[in-house]
Specification:
Elements lengths: L4 H4 L30 E5 L5 H18 L8 H7 L4 H17 L4 E3 L6 E3 H14 L3 H9 L4 H20 L24 E3 L1
Parallel strand pairs: 2-4
Antiparallel strand pairs: 1-3
Length: 196
Amino acid sequence: MALPFSIANDLHLRSGSGSLAIEIDEELGMFTSRPPHGYSPQQLSELGTAELFVLSSLRLWFLSHCDREHPYPDWRQAFEAASIGKMGTWGFDRLCRIVGTTTVRSLDVHWLNCARVGVYESSLLMTIGYLQHNQPGAAEIALLDWCPPAAVRLALEAAQALATALELHGLMIPVREHETMPPQTLPAPSGSARLH
């Protein structure tokens, strides 16, 4: 299923480079500014509609939690416009919350207009792709790079709900494991996210 043009290409909403300066408070306790892990070799121009849908939703989800000074489109509107449904919306939100609150490394999430894909962003796409291609073991291994085992079990349930909902709408994420790169800096303390 093709997404409306405004959703599939709504990646350049706000200019920004570098990282977002974020103070930790009780509600945003999982987010802080950290050095980047680096980039995946993937470029946005190489991604298909399903990947762009998930990636733009991921970036909007994190922006809405990290940058409260600027208005951003609600990521749920894209799910609604694509008729993804409550189970897919629940899976996506829960997956982001689980990884965001239990991460053992800094999450490198990029600004909407960034033409490169972060290592974490690529890993999340791989996780969903593995689940859609009936490779739950590989999906679990991908998530273990970011979360402790107990959190991975919960995250896999949420990721499976998202993967299934996307698949039901013809939105398939290809498995691109050969394009993944290891982090280029030391891991940050647990519970942090970085927007770049």
